[in-house]
Amino acid sequence: MALLTIATGGHMDAIIEAVSSHPIHAFSKPTRGRIRLLAGLGVEGDAHAGTTVKHRSRVARDPMQPNLRQVHLIHAELHDELRAKGFHVSAGDMGENITTRGIDLLGLPVGTRLLLGGQAVVEVTGLRNPCVQIDRFQKGMMAAVLDHDDKGNLVRKAGIMGIVLAGGDVMPGDRVLVELPRLPHRRLEPV
Asked: MOSC domain location, by residue (predicted)?
């Protein structure tokens, strides 16, 4: 596997801009000074932590399916884009646990490993599939986090999901290192 640091325009290392967690099922999560990732579980004290799925709609379908959504990451550049369109959004507002800057999260392949804070490792499992809760948060935001590529394919911009392979503390300012999986790469699909 190749280890690399993703940068924006060669000027900035990829960093963690904010971390968030919430012990109850709510759309938004308050930001924290740090979060602790627990191997095989997710974010300590977060409502979505566990070995089996915790998102209510998925629990209703099959409560025993594996939790491929232990950690939700969003790129801060999406917040910038949404604010430019008139939405009021900041870290944690869209339910993410980790807000990054300087990395193309949506362009990562399945199986990418993100080394966070020196110890924690999150393996990317897929895309967050935006749901109606986004429009309940702010009207019109659902359309703003969906787009189409030049081939007409739907692009979901509401972040990525992952599982925790190695635990550790993660806090704002920590670097993000990226370890790509072996070729051929599989593009992200909703999980």
From this structure: 29-179
